[in-house]
């Protein structure tokens, strides 16, 4: 068993590509930590730096309290499982799982005992004498996992081990990984881009985007109280409604979020009102989950929006309604492009001196472009991707396309962010 500490770890790839940016994170002894994020956000890079397969450009890695930046991979006592579960094709399942113990010249009786025990736990005891070529994808991944864990490493690293499997097999193996790893008590860092895998497996989840850590916490913490608009949107199975609003505090009576054609009022008694009022005169982003909105009758006097139902969408277990109500949706703010960031002038950081004049020019154009986009986030300027509010209707739609409709807003469920996407209203954590 082992603990892992990453302290401001940075990875710059050749070409000034900033794949991981000053990331600090820890995994406690015996913890199951999931790294979650979209493809290309730096998850594998991070895992490979922990394994010693990739050099750390800057920052420190500590394994079990020991500085490990330059520790050779074989001295880290780390086992890794990859997406494609590469096995030795000419060895049987038994031979594959036993291999790391044979290399370590373990007692053959002990080897047999471990292989038998693990193959039962992984439900591959029937396949022990077969070659990998005769196995299904799920079975191959089980063998790869058995081989990785057989020498009882201090740290278990898994890089999207289920993403090549079909949905049914993924669910089955997901539960087995969870049971196996927890029964062994091995510290595990598990990489995935699948939010369901992360929410179901993790003790804690760390979410990355473009090499930047966005949030870390238990699944319930980051789902209920996401630290950024990106996290709120990424963990949403339906699309998150993200709207720009002006903040007002008329005669200091209450806090008002002004969406243009619609307004929401928050009394001072609301614990979030003070933090939001700090942005009076400016703009904020308001995140509303489709299940925090509900149809209400015309006579409803609570917080609400109104509009026309553009279309209804059937999802089997529920209907979603798209309501046209004159409030432009805002794209989710993201960190700057890693290609440009690595070349920024950042006070002597490695790599900053290597940037060419051309890249620097591109970078400054990008900044200008972003500033224009910021201006574009003004609700009246109209350069937005979509302008429909999405509402979850359950399995009996009360509306039809074309209906005029009123939507009640559960004020306790709205989330307020700066225009850069950082959470404003204090999370309840
Ligand atoms: N050896 C490399 N050289 C240059 N760029 C790389 C290298 N490996 C990965 N990258 C880039 O770094 C970014 C992060 O990659 P990766 O860590 O594999 O992301 P993820 O695992 O989250 O999909 C990607 O944009 C990728 O193209
Ligand atoms: Mg990857």
UniProtKB/TrEMBL annotation:
InterPro entries hit by this protein: AAA+_ATPase, ABC_transporter-like_ATP-bd, ABC_transporter-like_CS, ABC_transpr_MalK-like, ABC_transpr_MalK/UgpC-like, Mo/tungstate-bd_C_term_dom, P-loop_NTPase
Highest taxon of source: Bacteria
Ranges for domain ABC transporter: 4-235
Positions of the UniProt region annotated as Disordered: 331-355
Keywords: ATP-binding, Nucleotide-binding, Transport
SUPFAM superfamilies: MOP-like, P-loop containing nucleoside triphosphate hydrolases
Chloroplast is among the record's keywords: no
SMART domains linked to this entry: AAA
Keyword Transport in annotation: yes
PROSITE patterns, sorted: ABC_TRANSPORTER_1, ABC_TRANSPORTER_2
Skewed-composition ranges (Basic and acidic residues): 336-347
Protein name: ABC transporter domain-containing protein
